[in-house]
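Memo to structure team: turn this sequence into structure tokens by end of day. - J.P.
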Amino acid sequence: MSSRSATRQSDSAGNASSESLAGALLITVDSLRADAVTPTTAPTMTALGDRGTRFESALAHGNWTPFSFPSILSGDPVFAGDDDIGLTDEPTLAETLRDAGVATAGFNDANGFLTEHWGYDRGFEEFEPFMTTADGGRYARYLAAHPTVQGWLRFAGGPFGRAVDRLRPGGTSSRVPDVEQRAMAFLEETDAPFFLWVHYMDAHTPYIPAPKHVRAVSGDRVGALRMLRAHVHTGLGLEVSDGTLHRLRTLYDAAVHQIDASIERLLSALDEQGLREETLVVLAGDHGEEFQEHGHLAHYPKLYKELVHVPLVVAHPDAESRVVDDAVGLDVVPPTVCESMGVPVPPGFDGESVLDVVVDGAEVDEEPVVSVAVRGDTVTQQPIPRSLGEGELLVSARTAAWSYVRHTESGDRELFHRETDPAERENVLEDHPDVAAALDGAVERRIDAIGTAGEGDGPTEVPDEVAGRLEVLGYR
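Reply from structure team:
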């Protein structure tokens, strides 16, 4: 950056929440469940949580990326405008910051749901979803568009694996090197104030970490054949052995470790540019991942803890380390980033800033956090429903102690007391009708805001490039 200084202003009362910073870095990790962040699997993320404010009961607003991300990068939750999954016309986080004079950049590690097609480029002066590559010829372009094939070839070793090593920088099937390069270039070249969003995909199935990360989390070597056998079952809802499930979780943890190493390099780049002590860092998982806790793998349409309980860390340079147990939704991210940057929060933003919680230790004004999913005739139905007219709407409401799930068509309801039943296995609805009624009120308000299922034109036609990338991720 040619300029390293940023105006640090405060109001007449000296409130820390009114100060502005040099920049804000938002790091999101696809499929990152809360219990995946440990000193072994994610030492950098753990240290960031120890340094900043760690929200122990942070919750995603949906079971997968297209249902969760509208609340992270815009002011409206999914289905706020119609029955499709794109962003509404209301201002996004990046648009709000850009219009206030903040330099903005967003780099997405090839998640097809986070592309221009659904409006996620809006407000970013630099935006790259890394869907294709023009380098390396026809074969390299094919591998870039098909990371699953790329990963299998690399782990199979031999001449095919060496070919992949030559075609991909750093010999990895991940696009992380590309994302890092662009993010670091932005930090070097852009004046303060800035907003940088980086999204990682390596923890999304199929889990294809480099061998050194498998060894780091387990001390084991998972060979190509065992990896292939384990991944045959991923996302299929098939019965798997304990050994296969253990290998899948090991690969997942290793993929998290691989992401963690990249985050360490990104934070080191902030240090090298002299920005770490002037930058807000926010880390969040966009949703979780299931390992048969409720009978399936990956993140099919359900709203149990393993899919909606995610890490959330807000590390503000002026704040002490804190742990917050109260439930918050990921919709706190946009207003918190705006307020940290000294930018007025648009009145239409759905969430409330938690900057006073982070900096001043204020209490969270805890309201039930609402999440949604849409389920077809079966949990594993393909394609997975993406619009309200394609299946049954499921809505959950959560506090730090309780989880409530309502199936809007069948009328089925579930209530779990997480303090005594953290795995959410025992439905205690009949024992606590008052709790269920209170949480059902939050569910009903969300349903009313959504409106009638099936309104609108339904899912938009997806460009071939995006459709191909989504198919690689398992979405038809």
